[in-house]
Amino acid sequence: MARLELNGNTVAPGVGVGAVFVAMTTTTANIPIRRIAPKDAAGAWELLDLARSRALKRLEMIQATTARELGLQDAAIYAAQAAVLQDPEATSELRAWIQDDLLAPESAIQALLNKFGTLFEKLEGGDMKSWAADLTDPWNLVLRELLHEGLEHAKSDELGNLVLVAEELTPILVVSYPREKVCAILCSRGGRYSHGAVLARSFGIPTITGLPQIEEKVLSGERCIVFGDTGRVLIGATVAETEDSLTLAADRNHVREVMIAGAKEAGRTADGTPVKIRVNIESPRDLDLFDIEMVNGVGLFRTEFVYMERPSFPSVQDQVEIYARVLERFPTKTVVFRTLDVGADKQLRYFKTPVEANPALGWRGLRLSLQWPDLFYMQLQALHACRHLGKVNVMLPMVTTLDEVRRAKKMLEAIAGEGELGIRFGVMIEVPAAAMALADIVEEVDFISVGTNDLVQYLFAVDRDNSWVADLYQPYHPAHLRVLRFIARTCIAADKPVTVCGEMAGQAAGAFFLAGCGYTGLSMSPLFVPEIKALLRQVDIGVLRSSAAAAAQADNATEAYAILEETVAAAWQKVSESVEKHNT
């Protein structure tokens, strides 16, 4: 295998050592051409043929169901589509593209679709376009089956640690593959503050983007080392390089183990000021990946993943069972459930949202829930039904106006009946308009949580998934820091608890700033809890207040971050001295 050294944009820190696994993450047209090694050609054809067989069986099932419910005439289309997948000429071409031209299975199908596109691009009329769809749709079904086969292959015991390689860093890429096997991610595209990047950091997966056409330059199985802190990638690494990297990774893990040992202590600053530390999770499965005694509960349960992981909308009972599994692990601690937040880059495969010119400013979060009340009522019913199982907190995402909050609250009141709601009711502040109206909003809710990721996006009018304007996405810009201070002061004046569940809470500089502003709690990925707790214990609250005030008055993001990092560096020095004492 050829040696290749690349440099990209660091997204998530850490050292990853494993074998390349080129992920097929799309089932639409324009799949990039990917080559395979000659030795893998036979297996690649078997993979495609298996996917084709599975697609045929699926079409046969659909045909039988349609014939039973609508009649033979309506079911005939599926027989025609099955015939398309059995075309010997197409099969022969696919085999040749794989075995002779060494195209990956999905790339071979893309080549076939491109051929169909060339044949039909000059044809006009509805009948011709329908004919083109009849030829292409069955092969798109095979692509979906290939994706399934690829995921199953990634889970197989024969594969060790995987370095996922894909065209774009997306949330689906991060969550689809077995987390315990993915040691790093490499992508052509993807911003540092994109949703996919946030998840990668939350899971502690070293990740690098800005590697043009990386998915076409590497082959699955090649030995790879990823240095997430510097953006350096080694493909075809030597044995010595691999051993040195494994040692480096082990040293980092040792420091983390020392911090974990003290993570059960209550979150506090050096002078004893309490700071509640909670976790952000996507699934009850996440609770098995860390010691729940380290935290004060769940500050953000992203319920959209309950929907994303299923083939159809979950029923009320489905949701109750999932939410109950979380609550039973925290019988006396707070659990905050964010209501459904889909849209933009978080889509449900069984629910098509409108095509929008700017999805980030469109139909998502609470906006979708209020316009789709049946769906929202079901989720509120499920959450209210869990009220006796623990400290249920319901949090609304993407709030823009006071009227939205009141409408949602009335829906919850309709479920709860007269009297108390039975659960705590709060909102996320992510939209600048909501921040400016906070003095009114805070009177309608029990708590406030700030989603700094989207707040930065909307404050600076920057799509955080758009690499062209990524430099303008600046969480530590004084303008953003001043908004955060304003939110904290408003909530403190109203005597309402205020926390942060955005990514800043899990960053040392961010945690120090937020604690210095008076935020009563920080919610983050479980991965960051030991570090943040260990660092907070090294600094007095007075020092944090002073550095937070100075950072908010800085001229630019670089200056503000440097002020905060100076305090962080001093705390890290104390932690390092503690680790050295532990070693001796």
Which fold does the CATH topology of the largest domain refer to?
TIM Barrel
List low-pLDDT spans. 125-130
Query: Which class of the largest domain in CATH terms?
Result: Alpha Beta
Instruction: Return the CATH architecture of the largest domain.
Output: Alpha-Beta Barrel
Total discrete domains: 3
Q: Helix content range of the residues, please?
A: 40-55%
Largest sheet: 8 strands, mixed
Radius of gyration of CA atoms, rounded to a whole number = 26 Å
Fourth CATH level, the homologous superfamily of the largest domain: Phosphoenolpyruvate-binding domains
Instruction: Please tally the helical runs, counting DSSP H or I stretches of 4 or more residues.
Output: 22
Distance between the termini: 43 Å
Strand content: 5-15%
What strand line-up does the widest sheet have?
1-8-7-3-4-5-6-2
Given helix and strand content, the structural type is alpha/beta
Average pLDDT for all residues: 87
How does this structure look, described?
This protein is of the alpha/beta class and 584 residues long. It has three domains: 119 residues, Glucose Oxidase, domain 1; 116 residues, PtsI, HPr-binding domain (Enzyme I, Chain A, domain 2), CATH 1.10.274.10; 248 residues, Phosphoenolpyruvate-binding domains (TIM Barrel). The strands form two sheets. An eight-stranded mixed beta sheet has the order 1-8-7-3-4-5-6-2. An eight-stranded parallel β-barrel has the order 9-10-11-12-13-14-15-16, surrounded by four helices. The relative contact order is 0.10.
